[in-house]
Amino acid sequence: MRRVARFFPVAAAAALLLLLASSASGANSRKPSARYASTAALVKDAKLAALVDALAKKGRVDDEYIGFAAQRSAVYAIYAKLARAASPALMLRLLRHRSAAVRLYAAEHVVKKLRSKTAQVYPLLADRSRITTQSGCTVATEAVGDALLQTFANHASDKQGAVLRALIRRAAADGRLPAPIRRSAKAFAKRL
């Protein structure tokens, strides 16, 4: 009994440290690395900066309509305002934003609206930052790269999907990408 009593505080402290370390690894709570930039560094227009900051504060990515009643998402509404007002160059700069939500919304925008620039989002397939997404009634926490690969696959059969199909095949063979992305890309590539 005495050994357990002495061991318990050490085990509790270790568990607490692990818990703190895992919660600090979240995409929006981690101190951003040098490869990501703040809103102020990327956006000069105050109104656009406010929209970007609002999107970053929400910290999630929603489809336009979510939930059982297919209500319009308040988070998506912020993105829609940003997408209407932002230039293509700004959307490309936002791929380097410190918020995983902003990066993913910007990447999805490039894939859907700026097809000639789609190759510029490829490096985000390696982004393992965790983000909460909602599509319809389905809520998930996934890596930015996983969500982006799903966007590639969803639009690969579009009229201009040749670039996306090529990127999926490239991802399947790219040893620099995390193994889960390569496996998913291989599965998608088989269906193309």
For the largest beta-sheet, the strand count, sense and barrel status come to:
4 strands, mixed
The N- to C-terminal Cα distance equals 62 Å
Mean pLDDT: 86
Evaluate the radius of gyration. Answer: 19 Å
SSE order in H/E notation?
HHHEEHHHEEHHH
Uncertain segments are 1-32
Number of domains: 1
Helix content: 55-70%
The total count of strands amounts to 4
How is the largest sheet built, in terms of strand order? 2-1-3-4
Shape: globular
Structural class: alpha+beta
- H/I helix tally: 9
How would you characterize this protein structure?
This protein is α+β, with helices and mostly antiparallel strands and 192 residues long. The protein has one domain (45-191). It is built from 9 helices and 4 strands. The chain has helices at 2-24, 39-42, 46-58, 74-85, 88-93, 100-113, 144-155, 162-173, 179-191; strands at residues 60-66, 71-72, 130-136, 138-143. A 4-stranded mixed beta sheet has the order 2-1-3-4. Helix 7 runs parallel beside helix 9 (179-191).
What descriptive keywords fit this protein?
192 residues, alpha+beta, four-stranded mixed beta sheet, 4 strands, 11% strand, disordered N terminus
Structure summary:
With 192 residues, this protein is of the alpha+beta class. The chain contains 9 helices and 4 strands.
What is the strand and helix layout of this fold?
Elements: H1 2-24, H2 39-42, H3 46-58, E1 60-66, E2 71-72, H4 74-85, H5 88-93, H6 100-113, E3 130-136, E4 138-143, H7 144-155, H8 162-173, H9 179-191
Parallel strand pairs: 1-3
Antiparallel strand pairs: 1-2, 3-4
